[in-house]
Amino acid sequence: MDFKLSEDDLMLQETAADLAAKRIKPNAEKWDEEEGLPQEILDEMAELGYFGMLLPEEYGGLELTTVTYNCAMEELAAACAGLMVMLSVHNSLCCEAINRFGSDELKQKYLPDMAAGKTIGAYCLTEPNAGTDVASLKTSAVKKGDNYIINGTKAFVTNGGLAGMFIVFAVTDPEKGAKGGFSCFAIPKDTPGITVGAKEKKMGVKTSDTREVSFADVEVPAANMIGEEGSGFKIAVIILNNGRIGIAFQSLGIARAALEEAISYSKERKQFGQPIAGFQAIQFKLAHMATKIDAGRLLAFRAATMKDEGANVAKESSMAKLFCSQTCNYVVNEAVQIHGGYGYMKEYPVERYFRDARVTEIYEGTSEAQLMVISSQLLKE
Ligand SMILES: Cc1cc2nc3c(=O)[nH]c(=O)nc-3n(C[C@H](O)[C@H](O)[C@H](O)COP(=O)(O)OP(=O)(O)OC[C@H]3O[C@@H](n4cnc5c(N)ncnc54)[C@H](O)[C@@H]3O)c2cc1C
Q1: pLDDT, tens digit, for every residue of 142-161?
Q2: Do 178 and 149 contact (CB within 8 A), yes or no?
Q3: What pTM did the predictor assign?
């Protein structure tokens, strides 16, 4: 497998690194305090095509490969993990669900505005009582003439307050459950009966907007079903493979930023009359951090490359997400340790990286859920 980046990959990576360095990183601390992103940065990113990164050019997208897209996303994550996850949910979960499984009519109707950033997507799978156990979804979709009536509540919806389009998974056949009884719908925000809750107060990724979203007798045309009736579980699983590769790259971005801070701090901070970088205990920490990040990067590139080749990446995307998110948490913890007491203060960015890292082992499937996917694939092989 060749992990050499193409000219296109390198160009996109450079453009994203430039945007991150000039516009995102200098403001990330402030946006974290404000717990949100200003409209102007969303507009700027829309102008650059960041809301249609994976979509075909015919809908106004950049039509990037998984590898190129994730090279750019890692750069954004290194600057602001919350901004990155906002884009990741929109691009790799919501746009992809419609683009890969939606009808031509749905694609033509919704994708141009989504690619332009005029309509932001939110992915509504998790419910208050259905997290890891996705098969226990309760949100219902009952057929009534040419429409479906949706009732239920979704939890922890990223982009909940920004979204113009909700991608909603609901039960169309309770008897069949996850085995052919779930379906997926594209529901525009202006459909009557949708209530978006208050913004959740979170530990990290505070610039992302997370809310509960409820659906009360929401009437959706049958034409807004994504894929066939009963294919919802399959769609959710395939789409989450994209998302997991994205979270692997998000983890690498946060970890890399923390390592860079740790290296530069260790060269500046003096104790016992010398920079702490002179102590082998600190050097070995840096060496372990860098080695794990590079090992994670190989897993993440393998999953992204295989996905671009059209392979089933259930196992590989889970391995990448598991290892990179665990590495991220290991690295940020060591980065705080290298900063000593200063690492615990908001004055240094490692404090934010430490908070942002935690969720990488939780969302888009916990580490335990990744272990379940990996082991079930191994036992199938
Ligand atoms: C900031 C944030 C943003 C999110 N964004 C979205 C979003 O946009 N859309 C969306 O649909 N969801 C979203 N989620 C939800 C996220 O995917 C879930 O939180 C996650 O899947 C875990 O579900 P849960 O929180 O209900 O935990 P639970 O499933 O209740 O798990 C609790 C603990 O038990 C463990 N556990 C559960 N079952 C088993 C088992 N069989 N074996 C071993 N251990 C087990 C879990 O690993 C975990 O450690 C988001 C979550 C957060 C925190």
Answers
A1: 999 999 999 999 999 999 99
A2: no
A3: 0.97
So what's the pLDDT on residue 3? 77
Quote the ligand 1 centre to 293 CA distance (angstroms).
24
CATH class of 121-230: mainly beta
Fold designation for 234-380 = Butyryl-CoA Dehydrogenase, subunit A; domain 3 (1.20.140)
Q: Could you tell me whether strands 165-171 and 121-124 are parallel, antiparallel, or unpaired per DSSP bridges?
A: parallel
The ranges of the chain annotated as CATH 1.20.140.10 are: 234-380
CATH hierarchy code of domain 7-115 = 1.10.540.10
**Side chain identity at 326, as an amino acid letter?**
Q
Concerning whether 361 is annotated as a catalytic residue, the answer is no
The Cβ-side half-sphere exposure at 91, using a 13 Å CA radius, reads 33
- Number of residues assigned to the chain: 381
129 lines ligand 1 (CB under 6 A): no
The low-confidence residues of the chain, meaning pLDDT below 70, are: none
**Most distant pair of Cα atoms in the chain: their distance:** 79
Please compute, for residue 203, the number of CA atoms within 13 A of its CA located in the half-sphere on the CB side: 10
For 26-53, letters b (16+ CB in 10 Å) and e give: ebbeebbeeebbeeebbeebbeebbbbb
Q: What DSSP state is assigned to residue 127?
A: B
- What the block records as the tokens of 339 is 């900063």
Give distance in angstroms: CA of 355 to centre of ligand 1: 17
Please identify, by atom number, the ligand 1 atom nearest to the C-alpha of residue 365: 21
CA separation for the pair 235, 217 (Å, rounded): 24
